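To fix ideas, we now present one chain and its tokenised fold:
***
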Amino acid sequence: MDILKPHICRCTEIIFQVIHGSSLPTVSFDLQHISSILTELHLECQHDDGAPAIEAPTHGHGELRGITSRPKPNAITLHGHTILDVLKYDREMFNENFGNIKFKLFDASNYHEEDIIFSLFVFLSAQLAFDSED
């Protein structure tokens, strides 16, 4: 990610297809300065083994959280910890792109119960808001 970060702001498509979910970047930190012209964001894994071990210390230094530009991609796929990351730290991106997001692989046993309950509440609230727009 250190090599990719300077170029993230110019990307129109970002696709990660990894074996372990812990290898996926965190949206709120690694992809903060994502391009406003982003058309697709796919963060996919074959096995959800939880968040990266370095996530907690990395975020503990007062870093900016959440995406700073407001992309409206045509397609978003989130797996594993990236789902919780977006729901917890970038609700605005989640709400603005709800109709374009696909949630796939997620193993609840790898996460804290409080995070799952909080995320479920955010997800259901967005679903209700989205349904009422139709």
